[in-house]
Amino acid sequence: FLYFPETHGISFRIQITVKELLDTDVLLKLLFHLPVNYPSTVPDISVSSDQLTRAQCMDVKDKLIEQAKKHLSEPMVHDLILWIQQHLKDVIKQSATVCNEKTTLSKGTSTEDGIWMLLLHLDHMRAKAKYVKTVEKWASDLRLTGRLMFMGKIILILLQGDRSSIKEYLILQKTSKVDVDSSGKKCKEKMMSVLCEAEVQSQYIRFQTFEVKEYSTLKELQKEFEAAGLTALFSEFVPPLLK
């Protein structure tokens, strides 16, 4: 167990091995973020595994959240771990079935939650190269598109993707040691602001890739937002950052 005390709750990582699943051992890496009002509120859960596909990990996460809702108002993490150890094989089988069904649908069909957008403001990056590489990896792993934007002292992260992936990115951003402090010691992001988290509207233009860009003027940054149909988003949130 690795405990990370937070001002907004507690996060911790757990690794479990499920034996003899599909003729191989599966190592599950689980990240739980317990909000301050836990267990009255379901924890945020992140799931990863080198032996499972991204879709299978998302299905495991969804099933864990379903189970968590049955245990509201009582400590539940231990029960959730026991449950997934006993039922992982069934979840994976269901995941394969659903996956096959989805391939018969048109590629234009959106996910149940639709496409969501997230705009973050970072105060600074001391270990910029490492920080940027980490953000790029998270975006790639979670299939998120968008921009990491630098303009003077302004640092913005604009992401688009499945709502569940957006939420998982937020957990990683808040709980991982992505930067270094003034003494060079690894630290978590303490000065991040969520400027906007909302469903992508039809007038928005979807980003096809995730790119890191630097802008020399505010006008250049504004054009990036305008090209994506996000003029109103820019006007509401970016100019105040210069004050």
TrEMBL record:
Residues in RWD domain copies: 1-91
SMART domains per UniProt: RWD
Reported function: Enhancer of SUMO conjugation. Increases SUMO conjugation to proteins by promoting the: binding of E1 and E2 enzymes, thioester linkage between SUMO and ube2i/ubc9 and transfer of SUMO to specific target proteins which include hif1a, pias, nfkbia, nr3c1 and top1. Has no effect on ubiquitination.
UniProt keywords, alphabetically: Cytoplasm, Nucleus
GO BP annotation list: cellular response to stress; positive regulation of hypoxia-inducible factor-1alpha signaling pathway; positive regulation of protein sumoylation; regulation of gene expression
Subcellular location: Cytoplasm; Nucleus
UniProt KW Nucleus keyword: yes
Stored CDD domains: RWD_RWDD3, RWDD3_C
Pfam families noted in UniProt: RWD
Taxonomy, superkingdom: Eukaryota
Listed InterPro entries: RWD_dom, RWDD3, UBQ-conjugating_enzyme/RWD
Cellular compartments per GO CC: cytoplasm; nucleus
Signal sequence annotation: none
Protein name per the record: RWD domain-containing protein 3
Organism name: Piprites chloris
